[in-house]
Amino acid sequence: MRPNPNDNPTIEEESFVNVAEVADRLGCHAPTGIALLPRNFATAESLIDLEYGAHTLTIRSVWRQAGISESRIEPDEFVIPEINEQSFAEWVAPVIFLSHAVLSQHPELVEVALAAVIEYARNFFAHLPGPGHTRLEVIMEEADGACRRVKYRGPVEGLDRLPKIIKRTVDG
Amino acid sequence: MGEHGPLEESVGRAVQEAKKACYATMALEVLESAGALLVRHLDLLSHHKREYVAAGDEDAANAALSLEELVRGVLAEARMWACLKKDRAHEAWESIVLAEMHLRLAIQCHARARDLGASESYERSLLLQEVLFPTVHFVSPGSKVRRSTCSICGSIYGECDHLPGQPYFGEFCVRLIEEADLLEVSSVEQPASKLNRVVEISDEDGTVDLFTGKLLDATPSSVFKFRAIIR
Fold first, then answer.
1. Predicted-complex ipTM score
2. Nearest CB partner across the interface for B107, out of A64, A85, A128
3. Which of A2, A90, B73, B217 is the most exposed place for a label (fewest CB within 10 A)?
């Protein structure tokens, strides 16, 4: 296998748009718990511009099987299309949103949701040579509605660090 | 499917025999004979899989599916060698890419295929791509999917519990795209499908087949052009 610059994991933290405010502007439901966000949520100009990243609908199924109740942002009967850009070399997770309420009151649900996504990513590369590379973004809402984004890029095994990073970010 | 049952042993032997033929020096008739043996085992596996499904034995059905994919993978490699002998470079590339795809499915479907060397065959398929073929320039279509369904139950994709690539009673779940907008085609290093590739380029020297190096047309092109296959 050729050496891959993604073998060294990178984790970035940065501020993100106020998800509730943007949801209101776009005319979609503001997520109240654990949600999947369109990949262009921060920059879309209207509801019809929204696009889910690849694997979003798959993780929707994964969460349902794990008992996670997804807070869907799309209005009833409205379908947000999903971008189909797949690669077997890197698994790009959908954008995950965690509301302040679920982070502060139900951290166990956050743990289950993240574990389900991490397990799916592991299985994607199961029994194949190489470390398996993945990208994952988690948006965390703070008490005042401001949001922070944690971006992971690197080997699948490095995803185990994410729950601790999220907890540390939440705990301040 | 019982542990190391007669069918599995027979498949294992057929795969080993076929692998012995998968070398550049092997005669075409030897490759074709190996291929025929594998095709017979595909028929056997298909028959047994139907029985397992009828008996409600999902694990056995999925084990049979994994062996089907293993056999298909080794068969595809054998076809690659045969195509190279017949000077069919593009078909050879497509065969080894299909080998990789089948073997990946075999590896991840069930341990039975791994027990019979599917992992080694998979890694071999990747190595053969690197050493037997020139650098391939891949392209990848990006699309926006508006409607898709599950191949197992027909539900709107994402609304059922079936996951793509997973086996269910001997059948892989596939996401069936029914409505999509093609957004763009990009040049990529690691595509979802290595079948999508640039096959010819045209410049001031004429048009050249990138796989064979043959000059297809000596007419100089005033602009750089390329032809790609996208499936």
1. 0.88
2. A128
3. A2
